[in-house]
């Protein structure tokens, strides 16, 4: 539970800019947000929405189970923790190429546009996959990657172009920069293996010690 809370905080820190932008543009007050969050009817609507269930529950759980909990323990003994972190996301990125087939089938855009979209999505999912692989290896728990995956699916890719045109552009862009800096500063302290029980299960599979498995 502690792991999920710490890793969840890391996501909030990284998305400080988008969250600040959302808070400034949202007409709701904090009280309105809390009222909705504790409204059972709101959650019933969410649970009855197949797209919400897919993006926030099913996809994060199944993809992290397959690409992190199942694949990383097979890669770590062969390649070591560090290499596995950057190898595993390649499979994760390729697995999202089915979106390209859908776009081509329904002719949603030009061929070059679809190709560029595929390259961007592959890059984004690969970077995200490396991050969740890092979390899984450092902590040995699946809850953190699943929560991060669900949160990122909800937030989507940061709308940087919108931030550049925002009326309070300086404040929003400063929040983006501060979020990235704080994320990099807290990345290792918040994933310290000693918080989760040392050594972590994945690290015990490595044939040689790695700095990733140490506090």
Automatic annotation (TrEMBL):
Membrane-topology annotation of the record: Multi-pass membrane protein
Assigned protein family: Belongs to the peptidase U48 family.
GO BP, one annotated term: CAAX-box protein processing
Claim: Ion transport is one of the keywords in the record: no
Record protein name field: CAAX prenyl protease 2
Example GO molecular function: metalloendopeptidase activity
Compartmental location: Endoplasmic reticulum membrane
Catalytic activity: Hydrolyzes the peptide bond -P2-(S-farnesyl or geranylgeranyl)C-P1'-P2'-P3'-COOH where P1' and P2' are amino acids with aliphatic sidechains and P3' is any C-terminal residue
Keywords tagged on the record: Endoplasmic reticulum, Hydrolase, Membrane, Protease, Transmembrane, Transmembrane helix
InterPro entries, per the entry: Rce1, Rce1/LyrA-like_dom
Domain CAAX prenyl protease 2/Lysostaphin resistance protein A-like: 52-155
Enzyme Commission number(s) of this protein: 3.4.26.1
Pfam families (UniProt xref): Rce1-like
Superkingdom of this protein's organism: Eukaryota
UniProt key word Transmembrane helix: yes
A GO CC annotation given for this chain: endoplasmic reticulum membrane
TM region positions: 65-94, 114-137, 170-190
Main enzyme class: hydrolase
Phylogenetic lineage: Eukaryota, Metazoa, Chordata, Craniata, Vertebrata
Main location: endoplasmic reticulum
